[in-house]
């Protein structure tokens, strides 16, 4: 995800107070010349890679102060998502190659560690936009088009002015979604509320007009707001109170399709959107489930703006982890699940497998009314769960084992597909063997993709937690993943070696965490 820049003439931004009644233009020109000269000096010696500035601790502060608009990607060379973003980022930078006010830059956060810490980089890629002393987080789409549109919105007026029918048609034909405010008086309170709403929404284009011909073209005799979109019904007319908040709510409810197909292109819009309740329909696209999708869409109309409706093709290999995340098997599909994107990532399961319009509507309404309890997944407990040195935990036996006050319990939370977990597996088995005869120490593991816990949330793999005896404390282990380090940690009663000891281990954890976050809902 990234984005950057806008196109405007430097002199347009020259503050009016620099112009004087006598010789004002000459003084202004001198100021512009000096500013451009100083700016060219600031860029002198700065390395570029395919039009993207390479930022380091030696030039970062100077460039963020001198460049009016600067988008910055903090990346790691090993990060797969950063590699996928790179060509799109270069394309976006190319859109602003003739603009002396706007640039795209990048920071290798594995080298410029201090910069990454200063700007609170917690994952890769992280993109920030520096605009005249202010810093904005970018969390929209990862295509060049997404980034360019966002930058232009951030640096230009909240709503562009339409002066002719041809301009209006061109804009509506160009944008997937555009909101047009029709106001006979663009300085009215209603028009200002519209502009305020436009300024608060970054991922949708807004326009405003008072042109009589444009009014006539759309059959309007009074003020109106219309959202034009290239899907569903094509356009939606606003009929609420003309307040900024109500206009924002209207746009959020209508800017996405009623039903969204989950894929790499739509994922960012889904995750970064304003609607945090998602109903997921897992199906096989090859079965041509048009009737089911029609019912799903009918239900979606009832809850527009409250719940996002998403269909997921389980035959797409990229989506298999999502299926695992909800504890679903391929043979159980088609099926629906509901998730709330909060800190808990709360999941909800219907009591019936029927997928009728009526049953799906009831499920969603009961969820919104607070009548459904969160679904806590648990794998079946193996009969021989405690037969080996490393004990197997699932949702149903976790508390009895991990929170046994008579024992020190060390648990690995893993994912079957996680490369780092696979590397750790033989070491963890050795650790279990080492302490198998200690009655006060238990080494255990739990598949966190198949089991949920109410009071423990796992966000990356592997996660290691230590539950000391005679205590309610839970200690996170972030030390080296070696047998020697684990033994030292356990023999000290969890007092030594819990902290991260090597940059390599940290990078591995960040990479695994980043990949995990982008592959689940």
UniProtKB/TrEMBL annotation:
It is an enzyme of class 5 (isomerase). It catalyses: Catalyzes the rearrangement of -S-S- bonds in proteins. Keywords: Disulfide bond, Endoplasmic reticulum, Isomerase, Redox-active center, Repeat, Signal. Gene3D superfamilies: Glutaredoxin (3.40.30.10). SUPFAM superfamilies: Thioredoxin-like (SSF52833). Its main location: endoplasmic reticulum. It is found in: Endoplasmic reticulum lumen. InterPro entries: PDI_thioredoxin-like_dom, Prot_disulphide_isomerase, Thioredoxin-like_sf, Thioredoxin_CS, Thioredoxin_domain. GO terms for biological process: protein folding; response to endoplasmic reticulum stress. The keyword DNA-binding does not apply. One of its GO terms (cellular component) is endoplasmic reticulum lumen. GO terms for molecular function: protein disulfide isomerase activity. Its EC number is 5.3.4.1. Belongs to the protein disulfide isomerase family. This is Protein disulfide-isomerase. It comes from Octopus sinensis. The lineage of its organism: Eukaryota, Metazoa, Spiralia, Lophotrochozoa, Mollusca.
């Amino acid at each position: 995800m990234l984005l950057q820049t806008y196109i405007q003439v430097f002199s347009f931004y020259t503050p009016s107070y620099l112009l004087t009644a006598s010789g004002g233009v000459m003084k202004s020109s001198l100021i512009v010349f000096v500013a451009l000269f100083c700016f060219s000096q600031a860029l002198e010696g700065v390395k570029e890679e395919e039009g993207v500035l390479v930022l380091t601790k030696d030039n970062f502060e100077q460039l963020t102060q001198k460049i009016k608009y600067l988008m910055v990607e903090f990346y790691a060379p090993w990060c797969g998502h950063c590699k996928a973003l790179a060509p799109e980022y270069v394309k976006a930078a190319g859109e602003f190659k003739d603009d002396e006010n706007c640039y795209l830059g990048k920071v290798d956060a594995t080298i410029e560690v201090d910069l990454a810490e200063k700007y609170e980089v917690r994952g890769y890629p992280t993109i920030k936009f520096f605009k005249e002393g202010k810093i904005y987080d970018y969390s929209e789409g990862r295509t060049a088009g997404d980034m360019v549109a966002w930058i232009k919105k951030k640096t230009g007026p909240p709503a562009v002015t339409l002066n002719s029918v041809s301009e209006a048609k061109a804009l509506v034909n160009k944008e997937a979604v555009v909101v047009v405010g029709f106001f006979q008086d663009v300085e009215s309170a209603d028009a200002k509320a519209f502009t305020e709403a436009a300024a608060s929404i970054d991922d949708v284009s807004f326009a405003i007009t008072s042109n009589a011909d444009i009014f006539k073209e759309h059959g309007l005799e009074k003020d109106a707001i219309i959202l034009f979109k290239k899907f569903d019904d094509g356009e939606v007319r606003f009929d609420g109170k003309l307040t900024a908040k109500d206009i924002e709510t209207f746009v959020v409810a209508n800017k996405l399709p009623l039903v969204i197909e989950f894929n790499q292109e739509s994922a960012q819009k889904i995750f970064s959107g304003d609607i945090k309740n998602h109903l997921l329909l897992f199906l096989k696209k090859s079965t041509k489930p048009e009737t089911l999708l029609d019912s799903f869409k009918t239900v979606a109309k009832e809850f527009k703006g409250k719940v996002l409706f998403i269909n997921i093709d389980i035959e797409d290999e990229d989506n298999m982890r999502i299926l695992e995340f909800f504890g679903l098997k391929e043979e159980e599909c088609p099926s629906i699940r509901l998730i709330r994107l909060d800190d808990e990532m709360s999941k909800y399961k219907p009591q019936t497998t029927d997928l009728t319009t009526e049953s799906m509507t009831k499920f969603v309404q009961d969820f919104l009314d607070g009548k459904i309890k969160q679904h806590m997944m648990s794998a079946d407990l193996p009969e021989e769960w405690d037969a080996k040195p490393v004990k197997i935990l699932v949702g149903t036996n976790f508390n009895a084992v991990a929170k046994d006050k008579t024992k020190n319990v060390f648990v690995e939370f893993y994912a079957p597909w996680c490369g780092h977990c696979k590397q750790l597996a033989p070491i963890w088995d050795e650790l279990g063997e080492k302490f198998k005869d200690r009655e006060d120490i238990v080494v255990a593991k739990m598949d966190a993709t198949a089991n949920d816990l109410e009071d423990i949330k796992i966000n990356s793999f592997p996660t290691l937690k230590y539950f000391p005896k005679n205590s309610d404390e839970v200690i996170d282990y972030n030390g080296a993943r070696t047998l020697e380090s684990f033994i030292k940690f356990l023999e000290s009663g969890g007092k030594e070696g819990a902290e991260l000891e090597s940059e390599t281990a940290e990078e591995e954890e960040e990479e695994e965490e980043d990949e995990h976050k982008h592959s689940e809902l």
